[in-house]
């Protein structure tokens, strides 16, 4: 590994961490699309800053772009407050307009400046190590490493300083306000940090990857845990893992690093989405199926309890009576047998004492409107689940 | 070329005519379908879909090796649909919220598309140049067959829209009711979403993935301000969309170095701005005027009511009272007093005022009317 390669991986990892922290809160606060809007609408800020300084790495550029980011948020909220359109429409209206203004500004001055929209949107991480920061003639490392490093340090410092406030205002705005933390200040603080992170990272990895790095690790982590600290750590781990594996994937494929990091993030999310225990899609579908059978079982037991008449309880009769297909009634019947809930004598189905007890309790819960309790009961009664 | 020249050339010049027609049709169809997206609170779905279409374009180029815009758009359609259904499944099957799902699919698909595009660029194939026009769009690359394609799709959209108008409408405003009536809401939902995807894919070549969402939203958001009827809104949105297309093309053609997509978006945004401010029933301007007028009426009523209560305690209702006893708290200003005099409710004599008979009557009716209105 050459030193440039190591530097690229360090920059990518730092960007991943710097994005994962605000990203976690954005996902939890249901504001993920705001990060997309910011990432597009900072363009005019960058362009104006570039006109003034003629330098893509100047701090003024970051400041101006961050201001544009906050302006986006303010505009979205203003339009939303007028009640003329919904929030998502407001977001969808604001950022394309700001982005268009940026594109037009670039196009009108295309002859004088070396600023490419592609570069803003996509970045080129491979070139990052070649732009060195020289302090009194001594090479201290790539510029973007310093930029993203300082942004990361500020973000982490803010995170530790305001963790309690952030947590509270994310999960219970009303309580936060009544305890005297202003949710507005925290809201705009988070927005400012997100804008600054987006700007600081765009030059290295591009605006779209910033969005991916903010949302995808946090979303994947959210499927695995419901603990905020664990979620933060997990999303940082996911981000760094995708950054490094994405780099090597791009190296192997000789394609855009930002694109391949996003692709790794996508694969990672897909894996979590499919296989996450309890919240992954497979677990969810399995659980839904199980619950469907168990509800059927309960219906079946209730039917048995309600009918003493032998004809109603005849095996052949059940099919047509409860209106189930053969396969389903067979599964339900077998499950009931396995759990010792029913007995079959001469093709007549009857409840065992255990089945009777279960059904009585279930009815109690149903008529007192505490259906949720039935779930806990299943633990006590069932030997086998559906 | 200035704008006048453009309009004189638009009927004769092949390129200009094609582009203008193309953007006008595109604006109309996106406006039409955008109305549904906006009303269904799926505004950002357009943004997600347009980004999600990118890998489809790249993959269909990789497979066919040709740049035929129809096959590329077919790829875009497929990948846009995959993105859409993935979004739906994330929202319904997990506890992730819709904004997270949208942002995820948008950025992940787009990043994957970029990976493929850069991969294609490295391939030794001279044919690959120009794929990135799908990023920001280039209306100038439209040819007549593209416009025909758009026209046909618009025709189909219109046909389906008219055919399933009732179903779409009921799904839009009361999904549960539609279900109880026995409509297959899932199928209708999929149908309308597919058409939205189709419209977005059509626009990719012209305005590009990044700005496509604005084409979908802006005309609809503008049209929403002028009417409460769905049919009128769809019609207006189509009209706004078409005009944005034509004006945008005109402006960008009359200037150097102006790409069409962003200009169309800005023109559409101007429509939105005008609608937000000047719409008679919902617009901010008239709302503010109504607000001020109401406040003034209220102040006037307050002063009158206060006077009424004083006059009530006297046998002669026209007994004069000092102006000084009125204060701001009772809604009194010099202006309101003057207005009351103008209405002949009050007469002024030096520093005293007295209620007229007419004023007394209307003040006592003031409350009657209010209570009547409340009932």
Quick overview:
Chain A is mainly alpha-helical. Chain A has helices at 3-28, 32-53, 59-82, 87-108, 117-122, 143-161, 163-171, 173-178, 183-205, 207-224, 228-253, 257-275, 281-306, 315-322, 326-338, 353-367, 372-381; strands spanning 132-135, 138-142, 342-345, 348-351.
Textual characterization of the structure:
The complex is a heterodimer of chains A (386) and B (375). By secondary structure, chain A is mainly alpha-helical. Chain A folds into 2 domains: 275 residues, ABC transporter involved in vitamin B12 uptake, BtuC (Orthogonal Bundle); 100 residues, Winged helix-like DNA-binding domain superfamily/Winged helix DNA-binding domain (Arc Repressor Mutant, subunit A, Orthogonal Bundle), CATH 1.10.10. Helices cover 76% and strands 4% of the residues of chain A. Chain A contains 17 helices and 4 strands. A two-stranded antiparallel ribbon of chain A has the order 1-2. A two-stranded antiparallel ribbon of chain A has the order 3-4. In chain A, helix 13 crosses helix 16. The longest helix of chain A has 26 residues. Chain A is elongated. The two termini of chain A are 54 Å apart. In chain A, 44% of the residues are buried. The relative contact order of chain B is 0.12. The radius of gyration of chain B is 30 Å and the shape is elongated. Chain B is built from 16 helices and 3 strands. Chain B has 2 domains: 279 residues, Orthogonal Bundle (ABC transporter involved in vitamin B12 uptake, BtuC); 90 residues, Arc Repressor Mutant, subunit A (Orthogonal Bundle), CATH 1.10.10. In chain B, helix 12 crosses helix 13. The interface between A and B is large, with 63 and 61 residues.
